[in-house]
Protein: Fibulin-1
Amino acid sequence: MGAWVAALLSLCSLLHGRVAAQMSLEDCCTNGQGHGVDKQECASLPLISESTNCRIAQEQCCMAALEDTSCTQGINMAKDEGDCKSLLSGSSCETKTARMCCECCLLGRALQDQKLSCHLGLPVSHQCGQVSHACCLDGAPQNLNNTPPATDTEKKQDDESDEQCRAAGKCSQRCLGNGTCGCLKGYKLKPDGHSCEDINECLLGSYNCRAGERCINTVGSYRCQRVVSCGTGYELTESNICKDVDECETGTHNCGPELECQNTQGSFRCRPRVRCGSGFIQDALGSCIDINECLSQTAPCPSGQLCINTVGSYTCQRNTVNCGRGYHLNEDGTRCVDVDECQGPDAACGGHGCINQLGSYRCECRAGYAFNSISRSCDDINECRHYPGRLCAHKCENTVGSFQCSCTPGFKLASDGRNCDDVNECESSPCSQECANVYGSYQCYCRRGYQLSDVDGVVCEDIDECALPTGGHICSYRCHNTPGSFHCTCPELGYSLAPNGRNCQDIDECVTGTHSCSVTESCFNIQGGFRCLSFECPTNYRRSGEASRPRVERSDIIRCVKSCQPNDISCILDPVHSVSHTVISMATFRDFSKPEEIVFLRTMQPASFSMGVPDIVFDILEGNEHNYFDIIKRYEHGMTVGVVRQVKPIIGPLHVVLKLAMNYVTSGVVSHRNIVNVHVFVSEFWF
Structure:
């Protein structure tokens, strides 16, 4: 692998001329190898040069290092476990390389076990052949060159014969005589018998790296590189050894000016420059602090003497007579006698009973007070704190020598002065409409159509149902708010209010007889009105079916069929066989989101796809200037159906006549045609 890297570097130099002056290709390769060994990945290579050649060398050498590592893992697995089963499931490049080297090493071991030549005669890759050959020779790694050790005399003769042999150009490195070639240490003879190639000691395991070091193959040798860092306080030397860093010598310590640095293995210590004398102690900053011997030592002075601390030492003084609290010296000043605090002018117990005791006194306190042995006085008892929840039903307030109960809002103090009774606030009519007394408070309610004010929670305000978020859907047409309620109205003409008081329903003027159509016209009811219609058949056509009726339903179709005179050639040749009229009424769609199917043209001819049977083609001839409609063909229950759809929103009122054509086409020619005139009335409203 090292020879391959060297060849790559040489090729890069020939192709690209020169590299950046500040970074050679060897340095770029070394950086890539180090990154691959340390990080075990090449995706995050650092940018060390702007040169493209340097980047290529860095990436290729990094990948070569990863490949060497993976291959070494595979060889070690073949040597230790004797199989490669654990590498069969992986799909990464590293796993594939490790599996290839593991399996090729097993091939070399098989050659060695069968006492065969270590030159694998199979057309495998060059790297597989190298691994197989190395594992086969692994039984005798000390003599990889197949040359016996030579004496000094033999070496001298060999050197002379080597020069003569190399001059003849037969052997690339050493000539052993009798036409035999040999190789230098770190190389092995190729199968051609005269060329030498590098031995990968890392693959063969014939290296002596220490624990924590990794073997890296080089041309003719190998080197050991430390894998684990030295850690804080140590540095890696050129000989790959962790050496202690002398922070005191390098000046990387943080000792203050009054401290001196002392180096230790992996660290350092700060020692005071000045030593403190007797009677002093040195702090962390090197300052000398006086020792209080009177506190730090046990009875430094004899009995009957008082210890007094001094700077750096202490002194002892004889004790003087000192009476404790509650005593004072007698007139002679020789002994301490009791003080009667109850007879003093200061009224020790403050109006409470006082009892003198030796060196002290005791107070007999009145009810609501307790004697404080520390302050020697009668303190008020806070009954509310001493008996929480036991004296008052609600709130307790302490007073001097006693306490007082009170109630929370909504309650009043009972006759016993401790319990609380509920107050009926509704008796004072605090609410504008309805009031309900609750325990400790009250609740205001409003009648239907009103809501409680958010400001005071007492006044009832009218609910404007028409202004609510759903107000637009309360009424079909218009909503009118009233105090406590609302009412709906409909357009003045053509509609009446439904029994539910909210929806508007169409008035059928044709049924109620409130239309104005003549006897020769047909009445057709539409949403919010009516239309007087009169349909006449064109020339050469006669009406089929019933005669004109006073009222036209939506499903009614008035059909005129062709009736030609015997000699009227133009009439006979006219492909239009029938002309029909139909009427539909639609409301304006409130939420138009997808095409709406409005008219269905059903044919009497079954759908057929055989040759010679006419195909039916539907088309809109007139009335679709704004492209509100389209017509599609589909098959239902074996019949051909033309479906007219509204494909764009229409805001009424609108009246449009769609002239539709059903064309019967045979061999690309219209054989005959039926015309359907659809009178579409769109209402102004959605109801």
